[in-house]
Amino acid sequence: MRANDSKTSGVGSVLLGVVAIALAGMVGTVGLINQVGELSPKVGDIVSFDPMDSMSRDMQALLPAMLADDRPGVACVLDVRTIHANGGSVIIEAREPRADFAYRVHWAGPRSSNDGSNCGSSADLLVNLEDIEVLAMAAGGYGVPAGKQAGVFWRSAAAAQ
């Protein structure tokens, strides 16, 4: 009778181990799903182009944008090569409840395009998620380069040493 009890406790230990691994896997999966939702750009994120940075020669994206002033059909283009050559930035201001062109951004820079589809030197625009991601990829990511985040005047003496 004792031999039978040890087999039962061995099977119970294996089942308990399998259940523990399954629960850990489920917790990890739920955590991963939550983080995937956080990967999209957030309000306040900035995409900054510095003409001094290098950029791939293959980057030829022309990204459509709509003016955010509710004039139907009025659109302009964000030409990644032009923006990179001249500098500029896009700041995400809001997420709109639209299926397409769901992000309201503020564009600022010398020009967004070299032709008649230029957005101007400053404009509030509506763009879609994929185009924001293309802009971020072309700029080297979200944010301002580390060397430009603080002016010389505001740096502490300890940071300078």
What does this structure look like?
There is one protein chain. With 161 residues, the protein is α+β, with helices and mostly antiparallel strands. The chain folds into two domains: 1-39; 46-146, no CATH class. Helices cover 36% and strands 22% of the residues. The radius of gyration is 25 Å and the shape is elongated. The termini are far apart. The model is unreliable at 148-161 (pLDDT under 50).
Write the layout of secondary structure elements.
Layout: H1 2-37, E1 46-49, E2 62-67, E3 75-79, H2 80-86, E4 88-95, E5 103-108, E6 122-127, H3 129-139, H4 157-160
Antiparallel strand pairs: 1-4, 2-3, 2-6, 4-5, 5-6
Keyphrases for this structure?
alpha+beta; disordered C terminus; 4 helices
Number of domains: 2
**Biggest sheet character:** 6 strands, antiparallel
Q: Helix/strand/pairing class, anyone? A: alpha+beta
Task: Indicate the low-confidence ranges by residue numbers.
Answer: 148-161
Computed Rg: 25 Å
Percent of residues in helices: 25-40%
The count of strands amounts to 6
Helix count from the secondary structure assignment: 4
Q: What's the arrangement of strands in the largest beta sheet?
A: 1-4-5-6-2-3
